[in-house]
UniProtKB/TrEMBL annotation:
Protein name: Transcriptional regulator
SMART domains in alphabetical order: HTH_MERR
UniProt organism field: Alloalcanivorax venustensis ISO4
PROSITE patterns the UniProt entry points to: HTH_MERR_2 (PS50937)
Database matches in InterPro entries: DNA-bd_dom_put_sf, MerR-type_HTH_dom, MerR_fam
Transmembrane segments: none
Keyword Ribonucleoprotein among UniProt keywords: no
Statement: the UniProt record of this protein carries the keyword DNA-binding: yes
Domain HTH merR-type span(s) in chain numbering: 18-88
UniProt keywords, alphabetically: DNA-binding
């Protein structure tokens, strides 16, 4: 994601559901033709297309574009490097989610084991 200091340079993202390519261009300080090019290069970037092939970006798309912009223009990554960085973030995020799910399952299984052990102890005491 963008560093907090870089967020100050770009305008705040309005609380809208969809943004046109012109609005995103202004919000991210990137020309529309660059946005169209990035759509081809970054699979994470998939705006909704409606009548006449008009693009409508959602808030997550705008955040992704700002992240791509930061990687390319501020951090000096190449397109390929930025693509790898973005997919690495997604993999790390997914890995964290799996790790949390596994921890939760362990806690739940330990609870089940406690209930089963309590039942077994009670059945031994009261045959």
């Amino acid at each position: 994601m963008l560093e907090p200091s870089h967020n100050d340079e770009l305008p705040a993202i309005p609380g809208k559901r969809y943004f046109t390519i012109g609005e995103v261009s202004e919000l991210c300080d990137v020309k529309p033709h660059v946005l169209r090019y990035w759509e081809q290069e970054f699979p994470q970037l998939k705006p909704v297309k409606r009548r006449g092939n008009r693009r409508y970006y959602q808030r997550q798309d705008v955040l992704t574009i700002r992240q791509i912009r930061s990687l390319l223009y501020e951090q000096g990554f190449t397109i390929g490097g930025a693509r790898q960085q973005l997919s690495g973030d997604a993999n790390a995020e997914q890995s964290t989610r799996y790790h949390q799910m596994i921890k939760q399952m362990i806690v739940e299984l330990e609870d089940v084991l406690d209930v089963l052990n309590a039942d077994r102890i009670n059945s031994v005491r009261h045959p």
